[in-house]
Amino acid sequence: MNPDEPLQGLWCATLSPLDKRGAFDAARLANHAQRLFAAGVDGIAPFGTTGEGQSFSVAERRAGLDALIAAGIAPERMLAATGCAALPDAIELTRHALAAGCAGALVLPPFFFKDVTDEGIYAAYAGLIDGVGDNRLRLYLYHIPQVSGVGLSVAMVSRLAAAYPAVVAGVKDSSGSFDNSRELVAALPQLSIFVGHEPHLPALRKLGGAGTICGIANLYPRLMRRLYDSSLDSSPGGELPLIESVIAALMRFPIFGALKSLQAELSGDAGWRALRPPLLPLSAADAGALNRAVAAAGIVPGRDGA
After folding, report:
1. Residues 6 or more apart whose Cβ sits within 8 Å of residue 91
2. Residue 3 belongs to some domain of the structure
3. Is the backbone of residue 279 left (phi > 0), alpha (psi -120 to 50) or beta?
4. What is the CA 285 to chain-centroid distance, rounded?
5. What is the dihedral of CA 257, 89, 124, 212, to 10 degrees?
6. Is the same domain home to 118 and 250?
7. d(Cα 260, Cα 264) in Å, to the nearest integer?
8. For residue 1, is it within any domain?
9. CB atoms within 10 A of CB 40
10. Angle, vertex CA 44, rays to CA 41 and CA 50, nearest 5
């Protein structure tokens, strides 16, 4: 983890491919990552929400990260998602990511217990930082309350950043609330603030935000690269309405199955459809409807894909 280079740019919240036994398929993900890099993606974030991270054990996530590195994925191009419901598990995964040389650790708050206070969330993150016990750690807080059920207030993030200025490096705001992202950038200009909702990227960058860590980059990395590169231009291009149309199509279906179904369609590799229960693949009828909806959006696969 390089303390002198805050993260920014286009990062992909990668899907997690499974093999025929239902195990994490590191070789397939490594090949996918290399295609993403060639298409202009700056780095990947494995085992996050899009990557079904909570469906994998600590041992699987450790082994998966090691296998990606062994397959040639540079650790400095990975932001490892290491959050867990149990604090000791999060500490173990974060220590492992640090030792592996990853660019940082993307960490959810403990998420099983709801209605916890800012004081409790602060104590959990402080316990993680103190438990890792290494100022080389670069910690990116992960705010996705509609999924985790546990949100990160700007006040709590500010307190944690003040207490651990050498460690707290940024926030991924996947709340979908641009007002929240705006408040984070205003209150914490020293941090790298990323959005998860792709359409917010241009407005965030104009405020000084760092970029995006997003799932659509799995499918259309070149399109997302153009959106990032043009996001400071005075006159927007046509990327934003295309991305909004794709998101609208995806959101008509269970999102994890939809993302993997479209990845399978675009890559020609049906193996991408597999998910771990309780998540399930799209039905053939839904997959066909999704493909038609995306085609109607005007996406050009050879130009916009990997």
Report:
1. 127, 128, 131, 132
2. no
3. beta
4. 28
5. -40
6. no
7. 6
8. no
9. 18
10. 115
**Domain residues for 261?**
238-299
CATH of residue 166's domain is 3.20.20.70
The string of pLDDT tens digits covering residues 67-118 is 999 999 999 999 999 999 999 999 999 999 999 999 999 999 999 999 999 9
Number of domains in the chain: 2
User: What is the Cα–Cα distance from 276 to 227, expressed in whole angstroms?
Assistant: 32
Is the pLDDT reported for residue 1 higher than 50? Answer: no
The pLDDT tens digits for 158-170 are 999 999 999 999 9
Report the percent of the chain where pLDDT is more than 90: 93
Residues 225 and 244 in one domain: no
In a domain, 305, yes or no: no
Domain boundary at 211, 231, 251, which? 231
Asked whether the whole model's pTM tops 0.85, one would answer yes
Each as own residue / partner, the long-range contacts of residues 117-122 (CB below 8 Å, 24 or more positions apart, any chain) are 118/153, 118/155, 118/156, 118/159, 121/150, 121/152, 121/156, 122/156, 122/159, 122/160
- Residues 163 and 47 occupy one common structural domain: yes
Describe the chain by its helix, strand, coil percentages, rounded to 5: 50, 10, 40
- Considering the domain architecture, whether residues 199 and 249 belong to the same structural domain is answered as no
> Poorest-confidence range of 27-41, 209-223, 285-299?
285-299
